[in-house]
């Protein structure tokens, strides 16, 4: 009770501060914060973004019981980040029509896939099959003016974010070469078995909102990722990772990199996925496992992950493309949609999240599945869907994930309300079909919660960075932050 009172007092102070300098609060905000409206100049208005940012700072609190040791694996690499259009122009590639390719075999495939996703403003990740051609492109990317090298791979990025909390000990297993090892946070423990002589490089072609190439224009900022990565592609560090858990004794395991095996071909991924399931099953049952998904194109492979891996993990993190593809692969709700149009409809997203937890999770006490939590993120809003009785502090967790999306995209330590904007609707429905509930988001307490059966949903909007400095790794930071603020309940009553 005192926490809520403290949060409310802090929020009142924050809103009062804005109000003192800006007496003309918008009417739709005033109805939530309970302040009278006075007329003043338009320049003095308190924005929706200011109210939401102040509410986040007042309401986001760490859980009573926090993780002390987190083990993360198994994909790690060095990201080479360049301007996608600039690099392709430097490689003397002409613009043309876009076409998606599940596996890239040439510069032409790269160009067509890049354009396909650029014109949609969507993120994607592909395997480049030709090692010599990839090597030439990688050298051109590394030498391109303005190219930057960063820690890469979902596991390494999640590990880096977790290591920013000084009381948290982090173990990272993955193919760690000399350059990557040099860039990792000193707090991260890397087992000797994970160190290798050379680094794995991933090329990240970024584009800005409104950027043009030929007849293509990007509706929003995003990136296209590709690599020829054999170590991560085979998840070669998985057994080392699982073997290291006995000595490290983590209270949370974060697993990523399954998407990298897709480019290896069906025969290889089928066999390796069985081995992965066996290895994951060896992890102690009392340790929760979070699985971070990433872009995939093979419906059979995604369906295998859904059937074999999801029931043996406790939590998953994914974005809107991955969510819809998952439904398409499993013939779930709204699988007839070819792609999302604009901001994904909250009701449709809610339907698919519920379907995943009902079909592959523990939405019923009689189920033997372990999956009880899904952290969904899209540009405009985030949702945490959890089976009742398993997770606590989820309102704070979903807000924390949204806040880090805003700050990291803008390259700031705290939200600057002048550099961000709300793109999500403040009114939406709990489902696309009937029966459904009409819901609204209160900017002064920016989490909307609703229940469907044994599943509770928490939604918050994102304060979207108007001019993002870097989009790579946002999903990993969101999931990591959401996990830091989440609490696993020891008792699971229904």
Descriptive report:
The chain has 494 residues and is an alpha/beta fold. Helices cover 36% and strands 21% of the residues. The chain has 16 helices and 24 strands. The strands form six sheets. The protein has a ten-stranded mixed sheet, sandwiched between helices. The chain is globular, with a radius of gyration of 22 Å. The two termini are 24 Å apart. Residues 1-10 and 13-44 have low confidence and may be disordered.
Defining traits:
disordered N terminus; six-stranded mixed sheet; 24 strands; ten-stranded mixed sheet; 494 residues; single chain; 21% strand; alpha/beta; globular
Quick rundown:
This protein is of the alpha/beta class and 494 residues long. It has 16 helices and 24 strands.
């Amino acid at each position: 009770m005192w926490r809520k009172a403290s949060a409310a007092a802090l929020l009142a102070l924050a809103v009062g501060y804005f109000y003192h300098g800006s007496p003309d609060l918008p009417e739709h905000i005033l109805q939530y914060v309970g302040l009278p409206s006075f007329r003043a100049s338009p320049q003095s208005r308190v924005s929706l973004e200011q109210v939401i940012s102040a509410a986040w700072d007042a309401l986001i609190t760490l859980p009573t019981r926090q993780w002390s040791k987190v083990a993360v694996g198994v994909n790690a690499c060095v990201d080479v980040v360049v301007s996608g259009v600039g690099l392709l122009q430097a490689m003397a590639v002409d613009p043309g029509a876009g076409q998606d390719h599940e596996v890239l075999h040439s510069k032409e495939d790269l160009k067509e896939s890049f354009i396909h996703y650029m014109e949609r403003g969507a993120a994607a990740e592909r395997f480049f099959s030709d090692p010599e051609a990839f090597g030439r492109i990688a050298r051109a990317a590394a030498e391109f003016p303005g190219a930057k090298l960063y820690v890469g791979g979902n596991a390494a990025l999640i590990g880096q974010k977790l290591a920013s909390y000084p009381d948290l000990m982090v173990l990272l297993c993955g193919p760690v070469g000399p350059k990557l090892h040099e860039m990792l946070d000193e707090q991260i423990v890397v087992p000797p078995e994970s160190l290798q002589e050379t680094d794995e490089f991933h090329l990240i072609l970024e584009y800005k909102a409104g950027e043009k190439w030929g007849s293509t224009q990007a509706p929003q900022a995003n990136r296209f990722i590709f690599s020829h990565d054999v170590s991560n592609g085979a998840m070669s560090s998985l057994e080392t990772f699982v073997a290291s858990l006995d000595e490290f004794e983590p209270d949370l395991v974060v697993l990523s990199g399954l998407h990298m095996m897709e480019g290896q071909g069906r025969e290889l991924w089928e066999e390796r996925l069985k081995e992965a399931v066996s290895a994951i099953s060896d992890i102690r049952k009392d340790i929760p496992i979070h699985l971070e998904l990433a872009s995939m194109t093979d419906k059979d492979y995604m369906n295998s992950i859904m059937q074999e891996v999801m029931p043996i993990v406790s939590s998953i993190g994914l974005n809107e493309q991955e969510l819809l593809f998952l439904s398409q692969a499993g013939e779930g709700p709204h699988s007839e949609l070819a792609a999302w149009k604009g901001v994904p409809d909250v009701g449709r997203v809610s339907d698919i999240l519920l379907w995943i937890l009902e079909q592959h999770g523990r939405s019923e006490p009689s189920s033997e599945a372990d999956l009880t939590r899904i952290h969904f993120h899209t540009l405009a809003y985030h949702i945490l869907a959890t089976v009742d009785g398993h997770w606590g502090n989820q309102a704070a967790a979903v807000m924390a994930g949204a806040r880090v999306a805003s700050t990291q995209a803008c390259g700031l330590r705290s939200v600057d309300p002048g550099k961000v904007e709300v793109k999500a609707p403040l009114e939406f429905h709990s489902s696309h079909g009937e029966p459904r509930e009409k819901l609204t988001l209160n900017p002064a307490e920016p989490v909307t919660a609703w229940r469907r059966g044994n599943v509770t949903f928490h939604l918050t909007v994102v304060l979207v960075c108007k001019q993002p400095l870097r989009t790579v790794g946002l999903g990993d930071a969101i999931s990591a932050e959401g996990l830091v603020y989440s609490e696993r309940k020891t008792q699971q009553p229904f």
